[in-house]
Design goal:
2 copies of one chain form a homodimer. Chain A folds into 2 domains: about 325 residues, Bira Bifunctional Protein, Domain 2 (BirA Bifunctional Protein, domain 2, 2-Layer Sandwich); about 80 residues, Anticodon-binding domain (Rossmann fold), CATH 3.40.50.800. Chain A is built from 15 helices and 16 strands. In chain A, strand 9 and strand 10 form a beta hairpin. The longest helix of chain A is centred in the first third of the chain and has 20 residues.
């Protein structure tokens, strides 16, 4: 007798019901991405540690499952897909047909305190476009993300995309008098809003900028919701700012043409913590503001170059499965696993040979068919058959086909039975 | 500029073409398992190390990716699914409807020298039945495994199941005069046939059994191919042996009824290395004998008990994706990734608004739709459109629908366009 060994904290077992829901998420995301003509890829779950420290700095290692493997290599379980896809794209950029529209469904791992919406193992759905510098790429990414959520049954009353721009953030902070070197620090302080006390953030901001009015100005900037208000607020003749405002308008116009403008909120409350974003950034939230971000992303034009490959523009977004599943559950939008059986075959000793033949033949023709593995009397077999749509049973030389819902039964033939093939449109001649 | 960071040896990147083939394997296995009314489950990729050492002994750790996590836990990346599923079943055995027919598609990890057919990361397809002691479970597992391979297009000329039995092995070795304690050692020597020199194995066998004729007797036993020959060979009145032979006949008869007898070869060359098998064991091989085993498994009635849970009979089988994919590739049975686009939409500045609306609307209705992200002239757009089945373009107030293969074009309406929904059987009125 051994002893019971529990699963690790922050990891999940997927019993059939949970696995069905997880696969429903995967399959819906996959279907929408394919409709948007994105191509699926995948990458290793274990990588050299430096793939992650290179992009995010050595401090990321404190959140990783990392170790030294038997060959003496410093390795880490994947905390996110982006560095790996950057390598895949970068190393073959000249042989791949561009622009590239790619998506992935992959498991990631982070050593964090498990809490609602955050586990140590989670799935992420990544959608990226490589080698397209224009905002048509941002529009394509955002429309795919919105369509994923609406396909799950969420509406514009339920969620919105908060759209921001690191370039406009930069112009704004410059106009305040923040030095170029201080800008990343300021953005990092802004990004911690809601996670730390306001007084602490205000103090840090003052220390970094030496500007007593910076906090109030940032509040005002973050309250802007229209391009017009933004133009007035920045009130600059700097042609770079004017050009960027026009680019923002082009993006919003395209999203409007797509019929999705109501899903977008201009909102400089969004900054995105990671330093590698170079332009528009976005996060998707429930409008109720209850939950963590459902998805987040932005443009990262310098990352592939950073890994030593040819400079390649990139924009992308990622969903986490835990938050997404929580929200769909709150909205009663998750399906439940019902009968997993079309046909139940009932037999006795005399009909066993024919029954076994027909079970396999029906399965080979695409029907989901079950029968009892134990030798049971007819009554008990009928009880088990209740979960199926049809019941087949053998009586003398006849095959009887029963419609369980309608409680009707009629004689059929093997030929008719074998025509019960889904997808070919030939339904059995039911009673 | 950073430097390029390679993937780890024995791991794989899945570019879209490779990912498509991998997913084709997954989807086909999933479909067949569902037709057999097996339910999908999954379990963590990282587990307490002792989950694996408990079952297979501490020596397994030399083949693992194992380490100590930040919380001081001895953990290991999953080398196989069986211990986890034994825990899942065992810990909920009383609340689960039995017998249980479960399958999984999961990634596993082993620190081994990468070679043909063996990588450090690989996928395994596990099919198991829990709480069914009769051989109807073995027949169900074997028929599912055979149907998976025939669904991929392999035939009985390509592969066969080599069926063996650890109980009959035990009876046979007893009859030779091998002591009960020596039987596991003998089986382990037999299992290494083909991996070590015959002389070495013969010496080891002599050392363990002290029987000079054991080697020749074992050869003769392994050459038996029929139950009749087996009965003659064992020529015993031991009722336990007679009963076991009858059970073997029941299993073969059921498989015959299923129409699958030609796929089975009785073959005591199969032993299965793992000590936890308690009855019938099987491996699937190409008939050419070229490759590694495509799949392997057997009955393991004592494993769940070993983990401290209620005693639960179990029988299962696992496929590895690497060998399977190699064989399908050798037989030209792998699909290639072709056009991933149904409709290509061509537009200019004047029609952009309408085009963007229709692109999203068609995608939301389930069509795979693409367009150029760059602003290109019509000629270049047409060139990109070649990969689609249909091309939609806008000219004045008209929508023109082009059948790419037939090089024909006709005016259509938005309504007709939106009826191009797959699965509903409404095809567009093509020219």
């Amino acid at each position: 007798m051994g002893h019971m060994i529990e699963i690790l904290p922050g990891f999940r077992e997927f019993y059939p019901e949970a696995c069905f829901r997880r696969n429903y998420l995967f399959q819906t995301v996959r279907q929408v991405c394919q409709n948007f003509c994105f191509q699926e890829y995948d990458a290793p779950i274990l990588e050299p540690l430096e793939l992650y420290t290179e992009k995010s700095g050595p401090e990321i290692a404190t959140q990783l499952f990392n170790f030294t493997d038997r060959g003496g290599r410093a390795v880490a379980m994947r905390p996110e897909m982006t560095p790996a896809v950057a390598r895949m794209i970068g190393s073959k950029i000249n042989s791949l047909k561009r622009p590239l529209k790619w998506f992935s469904i992959g498991e990631n791992f982070r050593y964090e305190r498990p809490q609602k919406g955050r586990l140590r193992s989670f799935y992420q759905f990544n959608i990226d476009i490589f080698d397209e510098p224009s905002v048509s790429a941002e529009a394509e990414i955002l429309s795919a993300a919105i369509t994923i959520l609406t396909t799950f049954g969420l509406t514009k009353a339920d969620f919105h995309v908060r759209l921001s721009d690191r370039l406009l953030w930069g112009f704004f902070l410059e106009s305040l008098g923040v030095t170029a070197e201080a800008i990343p620090q300021v953005l990092s302080i802004v990004d911690r809003a809601g996670k730390e006390r306001v007084e602490v953030l205000q103090e840090q901001l003052l220390a970094v900028t030496a500007l007593p009015n910076a906090w109030d100005k940032i509040q005002a900037f973050q309250n802007i919701r229209t391009v017009e208000a933004l133009r007035t607020f920045l009130s600059s003749s700097n042609p770079a700012i004017q050009e960027r405002l026009e680019t923002l308008e082009v993006l919003l116009k395209r999203i409007e043409h797509m019929g999705l403008r109501d899903f977008i909120t201009l909102d400089f409350g969004i900054v995105r913590g990671l330093a590698y974003y170079t332009g528009f950034v976005f996060e998707i939230f429930e409008r109720s503001g209850q939950s963590r971000a459902i998805a987040g992303g932005g443009r990262y034009d310098q990352l592939i170059e950073k890994f030593g490959y040819p400079s390649t523009p990139a924009v992308g977004l990622a969903f986490g499965d835990v938050t997404l599943q929580n929200i769909l559950s709150d909205h009663n939008l998750l399906p439940t696993l019902t009968a997993n059986c079309d046909v139940f075959v009932i037999f006795d000793k005399n009909s066993e040979a024919q029954a076994m033949h027909d079970v396999i033949a029906l399965r080979q023709r695409g029907r989901r068919v079950d029968y009892t593995l134990k030798t049971l009397n007819l009554e008990k077999q009928f009880k088990q058959a209740a979960k199926a749509h049809w019941v087949v049973r053998y009586e003398n030389d006849h095959i009887l086909l029963r419609n369980v819902a309608e409680k009707s039964e009629a004689v059929t033939t093997r030929n008719e039975l074998f025509q019960m093939v889904p997808g070919e449109g030939v339904e059995p001649s039911l009673p």
